[in-house]
User: Fold this.
Amino acid sequence: MQYLVSVTDDTAGLATPDEMAAIDAFNDRLMAEGHWVFAGGLGAPSSATVIDNRGEEAMFTDGPFLESKAHLAGFWVMEAPDLEVALKLAAEGSKHCNRKVEVRPFL
Amino acid sequence: MSLVDVQAAITQAHHEEWARAVASLTRRFGDLDIAEEAAAEAFAIAVERWPADGVPPNAGAWLTTTANRKAIDRIRRENHRDDKQKEAQLLYDDDPPGRLGVIDDERLRLIFTCCHPALAMETRVALTLRMVAGLTVPEIARAFLVQETTMGQRITRAKAKIKAARIPYRVPSAEDLPARVSGVLAVLFLVFNEGYLATGPGTDPVRHDLTAEAIRLTRLIRALMPDDGEVAGLLALMLLTQARRTARVSASGELVTLDEQDRGTWDAALIAEGHRLVRERLAARVAPGRYQILAAISAVHTSARDVRTTDWSQVVALYDQLVHLDPSPVIALNRAIAVAELDGPEVALAAIDRLEHKLAGYHAYHATRADLLRRLGRSQESRAAYDKAIELAGNTAETAYLTRRRGQLG
Assistant:
């Protein structure tokens, strides 16, 4: 079972070197224990481009899809047998990256 | 067997077997929905057949067999067994039995799943009352004064989340157990308190259905986890509180405070059972948690013949212990009430005035202040505090009591 652990940020800052080091160490552990699927940090929301290609031609719009106080700063995709394990890993992730996280199961 | 006896047998079977049936069906079919529906159908069939056929010798086995058959019928009827089997694996458990070293009754799995911290508190309460206590959705909706459809949706959403996010159906590991047990106890305490201090205009001041249900569930957990001190503590606290229930509201529907209660009407059997549990915990010589301390305070009150012979220094000492564990302003307020008896109202008033910024919206803060000011002869300030307390109180008996007290001020 896979879970998306998304990291939300309400400050504008990128991860500090200390936070980065903690995240790296945590990622190593996720890999060693077989929980790691993928992880990544994202550029600022202002670097986003929105695309809508449902009509005749693709529309490109500058800026994030939704303006909001908190934004998605990065995420993990984790392999875990159940929510209990996923929540534990996510709680550690929150500590290491020093931000709030949200856990959602993949279908 | 008379019809009344059959109905009593059905009620008893419902109390004793509902949770077991739902728990074992969930384990077998891996789906709370199927388990709930099949158990409900089995009980409906019992209601229909037992009066004519008689109560089967082993009612529990009869119900489980009937429910199992109903669940299999439903799965066949839905005619997409592959999907169902795939879903069935979602609510899975992979523990070999007994691995955790805790008593692994299936009902415990059910309780821990319903009280999982990933569910909102109100959802945990609703789900526990439905799946473990076997209350119907309309009963739960009435108990919490919400629309039946709202309550139905809340329970449906919870079951869907458990399945989709894969909240496991198992007893937590030993290292997580204390925190998870305390989460379960919080759910039961909330149900009890809602029954004991029911809120809302037009509701009975004490909802015996809810207090009784909370006690029944706590007894069940106690039977499943007899060595847990906090479980014993919560059960003792509920019993010692429930013992005073008839003395607590007057015939005219007014709250009667501890000092004015007719202690002769207290339930001696419940008090004896509560005291026994408190003594058992004292003998264990393990540092007590909050429920054990609250139960001990209740034991001091229920050991005294009247308010004057109450060992107030013992009560204050217990509150000191509690403040240490839980430095919340509500605990500090309750401590101050005991301090008033030991050191006088002036000392207590000084202590609670320091809590104003945290408790200005809490009716009991103003009610306590009003009473202390009254005892100090400061009628005008007392009246203002009663006004505020009445404005904030939600319990009908409490409002009646506060209004009378305000009217008696000189």
Q: What stands out?
A: Chain B has four domains: 3-88, 106-225, 228-248+257-310, 327-410. The two ends of chain B are 63 Å apart (CA to CA).
